[in-house]
Design brief:
The structure holds 3 protein chains of 3 kinds. Chain A is an all-alpha fold. Helices cover 73% and strands 0% of the residues of chain A. Chain C has a single domain, classed as Helix Hairpins (Orthogonal Bundle). Chain C contains 3 helices and no strands. Classes of the chains: A mainly alpha, B mainly alpha, C mainly alpha.
């Protein structure tokens, strides 16, 4: 049962990711990315990281992609861009080279041996909270500063008159 | 695996799903009747009286009208997104009810992160409106969709943050545990509900809930006087019905969550024989949800609409700092006491 | 049980799709989407290893990657809006003023 779910989520994720590349209109690419993020959330649940799975849907699929969708809808461009298609040959070199890179990576990760763990760890909110606020307190505060900087930066960049 | 699908657990699960789904669909239809009747009585007119006793079959008549209406798709509209948008709006609204505890034995599943699951579905519901407005390819829906989505994502923040105070007290994200943590009483008769411990959070949650579901007084995005009908201008018959059902289901979901978090869910005085004690929690839950629904319908009938900049100002400058201050105060009190 | 290498293979395939998208696409927003695909592939790898070794640090790291992706998406899109106001086009080939 878990194997069937794994194949389902993995197939949806990879298919949606390929659809992101294939679509001409960038809004369809963004919507395919939302589908991919939800499939990734399913994979996280299979890996028993349930808190992270729900956080992924809330933050990534529910906030970041809304931002993308808003910008695409507001800019409202036609489907295919004009301009010389000078990079058409890049696809024919890029895809075989990319597959070669994929072969190299898979040859490395294929031999990772499963470690027999004693306790079934669940990514519960308690476990994440305990670790986040004690061992990783400094990165946590630093990310809050990072978000503040991003907030100010986004508002400044998108202003009409500085 | 096949042993699970033929076991009694699976059959009971299917029965629970069918019962809850049927109940929610019925209540959505009933809610449209409640809304029309209460709004009418507030405005000193009778409301629907012709179809069935007290106009109770009015939702059936509306359903038949929607089914027989012509299903129009504008020629310039984006077909795939136009047809998909009501589904994207409807599915998260109904999926919320899979984690809500209606009674000690009537809950489809109890996720360990159930509360966050509900908020994730609320976040996904924004897409139905944004895509519906954009796919209609016309100016009123687009403006209504943009305004409505911006409003929803702004009030999502105060909605989520207002609940953190309750989580600090209850120490759990699972909705069943949240209900169970409110079971005891103080002084023997005052129930230990979270509304007495977190009044500010309750007020912020109720207001944000109204804004999340695009109801009056926060419905500038779909008001008749301003934007024809907002993001569902170009929709007719079944797709419009799906949007309406999604809106009512969202309202019931927000009310159910408010009772689970603040009013103690299905807790209430238990009395009577064994069979009555099985049904009584659901009666208490339904009564509390009905209270919230009645309040929301009354709110719609009485309060005028917010202007859009007033709305955004209120969400960002009043509700968000209030919920953050509530978190700070609550964490101090929980740490000290 | 699902062996850990299957999750890593899925992560590798997704990472490759992100890399290919970043090289081939000309729309700036599509480039940002490809970066998001790459970040997600890395997230999957982190969570897979965290589940295997039963340590929570992998998931904490995913937290931080999520935050950084959000910040980067926000600032990137603001830059896209500013660029669009000046050039009326989202084609990266048109932003070549610094090219000699």
């Amino acid at each position: 049962m878990i194997q069937a779910l794994f194949f389902l989520f993995a197939a949806v994720a990879v298919g949606a990711a390929i659809n992101v590349l294939v679509q001409k209109h960038v809004l369809y690419s963004a919507l395919s990315l939302i589908v991919m993020l939800t499939a990734m959330s399913g994979l996280f649940i299979l890996l028993r990281a349930d808190f992270l799975a729900v956080i992924q849907v809330i933050v990534y699929a529910g906030a970041i992609m809304v931002l993308f969708t808003f910008v695409i809808m507001l800019l409202n461009l036609p489907a295919d861009e004009d301009g010389a298609d000078r990079l058409r040959w890049l696809k024919f070199i890029g895809i075989p080279l990319g597959l070669f890179l994929l072969f190299l990576i898979i040859a490395t990760v294929w031999n990772v041996k499963p470690v027999r763990t004693t306790a079934a760890m669940i990514g519960s909110p308690q476990a994440i909270g305990k670790s986040l606020f004690s061992d990783y307190l400094l990165p946590f505060e630093a990310t809050s500063l990072l978000i503040l900087i991003a907030l100010v930066g986004a508002v400044v960049f998108a202003k009409k008159d500085l | 695996m096949i042993e699970y699908f033929t076991s009694w657990d699976f059959v009971i699960l299917i029965i629970k799903i069918v019962v809850i789904f049927g109940a929610v669909m019925n209540v959505v239809g009933l809610l449209s009747w409640i809304e029309r009747k209460v709004m009418a009585r507030v405005q000193m007119r009778p409301g629907p009286t012709r179809v069935g006793p007290f106009g109770l079959l009015q939702p059936m008549a509306d359903l038949l009208k929607f089914v027989f209406k012509e299903d129009v798709i504008p020629s310039q509209a984006n077909r795939f997104l136009y047809i998909a948008a009501p589904l994207v709006s409807l599915i998260p609204a109904f999926l919320t009810f899979s984690v809500v505890p209606f009674g000690p034995w009537l809950q489809v599943t109890d996720l360990s992160v159930g509360l966050l699951f509900v908020f994730a579905l609320t976040s996904l519901g924004v897409y139905g409106i944004a895509l519906g407005g954009w796919a209609s390819n016309s100016k009123y829906p687009l403006m209504g969709a943009m305004r409505s989505s911006a409003q929803m994502i702004s009030y999502e923040l105060s909605l989520t943050l207002s609940v953190v105070g309750v989580l600090l007290i209850a120490n759990t994200l699972s909705l069943r545990e949240l209900v169970l943590s409110q079971q005891s009483t103080w002084l023997g008769f005052i129930p230990r509900w979270n509304i007495f411990l977190q009044p500010v959070a309750f007020v912020v949650y109720v207001i944000s809930g109204v804004a999340e579901t695009n109801r009056l007084p926060f419905d500038l995005a779909e008001s008749e006087q301003e934007l024809v009908a907002g993001w569902h201008t170009e929709y007719s018959s079944m797709k419009f019905l799906m949007f309406m059902m999604a809106e009512y289901a969202n309202l019931i979901a927000v009310s159910s969550l408010a009772t689970v978090l603040f009013l103690g869910g299905w807790n209430g005085p238990m009395f009577g024989p064994q069979w009555l004690q099985l049904a009584l929690p659901i009666v208490w839950f339904a009564a509390k949800v009905g209270l919230f629904v009645f309040f929301y319908v009354l709110l719609r009938s009485t309060i005028p609409r917010f202007r859009y900049d007033q709305l955004m100002k209120f969400g960002w400058k009043v509700l968000l700092p209030l919920s953050l201050a509530n978190i700070v105060v609550t964490s101090f009190v929980v740490a000290v006491a | 049980m699902i062996p850990i290498s299957w999750y890593l293979v899925v992560g590798a395939v997704l990472f490759l799709i992100g890399v290919l998208g970043f090289f081939v696409k000309r729309n700036i927003i599509a480039l940002l989407l490809s970066v998001e695909i790459m970040l997600n592939a890395v997230n999957l790898t982190f969570v897979a290893f965290s589940s295997q070794h039963a340590q929570i640090s992998g998931q904490i790291f995913v937290f931080f990657v999520l935050v950084v992706a959000a910040a980067e998406a926000a600032v990137g899109l603001a830059l896209v809006i500013a660029m669009f106001r000046n050039r009326e086009s989202l084609n990266v080939d048109r932003s070549n003023l610094l090219k000699w």
